Here is the input.
Amino acid sequence: MSLFKEKPKTEREKVEERREEVLAQGRKFKYPMQYAKHKLIINTVIVALVAIALMVVAGWVMLYKIQDTEDMLYRVTQVIPVPVAEVDGEKVRYSDYLMIFRSNLVTSEQQGGVLEDGEDTSVLEDVYKRAALESAIEYAYALKLGRELGVSVTNEEIDGAFDEHRRVGGVERSEESFLKIVSDNFGMNKTEYRRMLYLTLMKAKVSQAIDAPAREVADQIEQLLAENGGDMAAVAEVLGGSVAYEETGQLVDNMNVDGGRSNMAMTMEVGAISSRFLSSNGDGYYFVKLIEKTDSQVNYASLKILLTEFDLRMADLYEEGRVELYIKLEDENQAAG
Here is the structure.
């Protein structure tokens, strides 16, 4: 028999006790759910990271091992600036390489029909790949030199070149019809074509900026033409291999594909000699003398000074091992057959 009788619980104490029992039961469900939710988030993050890693690896294999040139990966390289090579510390954009390669392929198919699967096709594609890669490397080097020299190409200059190309042949084409021609013949849209114009203009500007010897020869020509009464053949004889002398020998169309000489001649008077101007493909300077012309044809003589400094520097970079390729191409001689 207990000496002390247990004191009855008050209603308040009974409520508190019951409350603790309910909370204890709730905790059994609360903390396991928090753990499960936390684990779910971690697992989701891990799965996402693994998926991204697999996509990166797959993309790397497709670009650098398989060397896929199809549309999907090309679009990816336009968004993500992955490199295809390096020249003098400058990364060469994979998208530029693919843009040039795909354009060359379309042009080839336009001229000779769609390429069929086969050994000959593979060899031809290897040739196009190497040519595209070499061009992309040159453009990347030009961009590097342009930054160092403070040389740039403005949107206005690109617009001007675009409009000039749109009017080739003396035909005033609409932008829509011109872009249709660009798409059919070069496989490019407007953005890609403007990118190509930007690269070619930059290379032309840089080639001029670094080629002091060519400018010196051009200065010599101006002086010799004045001393020899505009006799281009005599000037060419004096300068020898520094210049190339050429005569059309007959009337040719004023839209003749000749580096811009016929266009220049069409703006001149008979017997006049132009000041030096850059060839339309940016590879040298021209002097033109108009011999005769009609409303749509010209006969002219010309002197050309090649811009060689850029090519010499590129040759040195290759020789010194300062050009690194991130993709493996067929041996040049083997690819060319």
